[in-house]
Amino acid sequence: MIARALTSFIKRYLSIAKWITVCPFEWEDSSHSIILRGLKHQKTVKRWLFFHLVYVIVETLLVAGKESDLRQNFRMLMFLAGNYQPTRLVTLCKLFFNLVEASMWEVPLLMATAGYLFPCDTPFLGSFLTCSFGLGRNIVFELFVFLFEFMTALAIVVATIHYSSYTLVTSILILYTECKSFLNKQFANIGESLVSFRELQILEKVVNSIIRWRLLPGVILIVPIIQILGCFETVMLLRRVKLLIQSCFSQFT
């Protein structure tokens, strides 16, 4: 039931990741499963991820060079499934994946829009190039920078935090489904039950290794950077809005 409800979300996510070349996997309709793409595509994905890493490092250096009193405020939204009722759990999983899919497009769009509206105030690579070369309000260059920032931010978001979210949630749901199937299944003999239990142990080990060696390093490295950038953009936007309001009131005084 859970797998059927989430299959469409996973297919859409893999199609987006395939389009922007940040994921070596794809959905195969004939077998209704996730498969690993060719070696050539895997090398392309590694090169793009290396480029995104360099981009994030440059942005971090730009943020560190700016004088601002940024404060990181981490907020967490937790969805509780109660007594793990199937209908409620499926509803919460659908809501989670819908929010992830919406933020997947909204966050890069907001970052690119902020870089377009405030070209010299945002700690992005495109803004740095615009101010360094003194191109001013060149509409062609600004559109190029907007698209560049949007595509880069989209690739970074899909390849890091949202990939981790999809991997973690999908792995936990698969493990939950398999455990429930193991408990409800009537085994013919002890040997068959031991084989199924051994498969559950292997699946649990895979989930633990994903959390320990993939999710935690990615979240520890990427989340603070995105949080700093988000706080910086919020401060700059509020400052611009405050100045705009003050200028509007000054015209009537």
TrEMBL record:
<feature type="transmembrane region" description="Helical">
    <location>
        <begin position="143"/>
        <end position="163"/>
    </location>
</feature>
<feature type="transmembrane region" description="Helical">
    <location>
        <begin position="48"/>
        <end position="65"/>
    </location>
</feature>
<protein>
    <submittedName>
        <fullName>Uncharacterized protein</fullName>
    </submittedName>
</protein>
<keyword id="KW-0812">Transmembrane</keyword>
<keyword id="KW-1133">Transmembrane helix</keyword>
<feature type="transmembrane region" description="Helical">
    <location>
        <begin position="215"/>
        <end position="238"/>
    </location>
</feature>
<keyword id="KW-0472">Membrane</keyword>
<feature type="transmembrane region" description="Helical">
    <location>
        <begin position="109"/>
        <end position="131"/>
    </location>
</feature>
